[in-house]
Amino acid sequence: MKQFIIISGLAVIILIVALTLLSVESKMDRQDELDRAVSAAVRQTVKSSQAENQTDITSNKEMVAHFIHLLTTGIESDGNLSVKVIGVDYRRGMLDVNVTEEFTYLTGKKATIKIRKCAIYG
């Protein structure tokens, strides 16, 4: 009986440690994915806005829409994204955004990741 209690206690401790490690790894993976996706979307949007004879981006609103489209296609994980545009100028090729992703861990706890990226065509 004593051994059963010890083994059960160890199993619970191992389970808690495993869930903690999964949560930390999950947040790091999401942070890396969001960072790569935002960087690529900002870079591609600014590059596209300054391409010769392009007709896709003819206003600041279209530039933001282009960025959001690229961002959403670049992220595979599930989470709630919110984009705050800090600065945009399609004529000069400038885009500054703050992207926030809210997600839920396996344990049910909610977390938030924030990324800010700025790009100027040059």
The secondary-structure class comes to alpha+beta
What overall form do the CA principal axes indicate? rod-shaped
Number of helices: 2
Distance between the termini: 73 Å
Oligomer: single chain
Query: Spans of 5+ residues with little confidence (pLDDT < 50)?
Result: none
Rg result = 21 Å
Summarize the biggest pleated sheet: 3 strands, antiparallel
Mean pLDDT: 90
Number of strands: 3
List keywords for this structure.
about 120 residues; alpha+beta; about 50% helix
Give a written overview of the molecule.
The protein is α+β, with helices and mostly antiparallel strands and 122 residues long. Helix content is 52%, strand content 26%. The chain contains two helices and three strands, in the order ααβββ. It has helices at residues 2-49, 60-74, and strands at 80-89, 94-104, 110-120. The protein has a three-stranded antiparallel β-sheet with strand order 1-2-3, with helices on one face. β1 (80-89) and β2 (94-104) form a beta hairpin. The longest helix has 48 residues, at 2-49. The mean pLDDT is 90.
